[in-house]
Amino acid sequence: MSQPLDKDGQPLSRSFNKTRLQNRTLDELIGLCKGVLADGAVTQEEAEFLQEWLLANSQVADVWPANVLYDRISRMLADGTLDSDEEEELIQTLLEITGGPVLDPAVASMSTGLPLDDPPPVIIFQDQQFCLTGRFVYGSRRECESEVVARGGSAQKSPTLKTNYVVIGLAGSRDWIHSTHGRKIEAAVRLRDKGIPVRIVTEEHWVNSL
Questions:
Q1: Domain 107-208 maps to which CATH number in 3.40.1010.10, 3.40.50.10190, 3.40.50.300, 3.40.1390.10?
Q2: Taking a C-beta distance cutoff of 8 angstroms, is the pair 103, 40 a contact?
Q3: Which end of the chain is more exposed for a tag (fewer CB within 10 A), N or C?
Q4: For the stretch 132-145, what's the b/e string if a residue is b when 16 or more beta carbons lie within 10 angstroms of its beta carbon?
């Protein structure tokens, strides 16, 4: 006897639909993990993003790999800091989940589809607000922000109506849209589309303007 189908031709069985939705959610999680791994490192911000995503998708909380990943990230962030040893452990966990190696940084740097300003604008530092996102070849995020402050500018954690420049680290990846720093880029694009004069530039252009 065949099962009754819904309007989309799918079985009405609750257990079947639950499994189908779980699989779709887990596919999204694996995509996010690949995006985080693309630059060969995991920042605390990215770890916190994964933790928040897992909390928001509690329907897979007891399903592998979500259950393992949530437990490990929660333990690592219990003290509020993701140290270097915990980062290495988290990278290995994500590799196990995705079943693939970290992309070579040189390959990961070849970003595609980044919504950069074309042509790149002249960068002015004095009294301007910068949001730096991604991983930078120039130095740590703190070092890069210090360069901005030293030239009379200020640094923000996320794009706002007052942001003048969003600078994307050269470790941007092909999966940037699935990564944490991708959310900042998306936010900047939305502001730009609304007529807010926020400029989106690469680390290379920013460094050349120092």
A1: 3.40.50.10190
A2: yes
A3: N
A4: bbbbbebeebeebb
Convert the pLDDT of each residue in 44-88 to its tens digit. 999 999 999 999 998 888 887 888 899 899 999 999 999 888 888
Give the largest Cα separation in the chain, rounded: 75
Encoded tokens for 84: 């270097």
Give the pLDDT score at 106: 40
- CA angle 192–44–97, rounded 5-degree value: 100
Averaged pLDDT score across all residues of the chain: 81
Domain ranges of the chain: 14-98, 107-208
Distance separating alpha carbons of residues 78 and 26, to the nearest angstrom: 24
φ/ψ of 5, rounded to 5, equals: -110, 155
| Joined tokens for residue 173 | 């990846």
What are residue 131's DSSP bridge partners? 156, 166
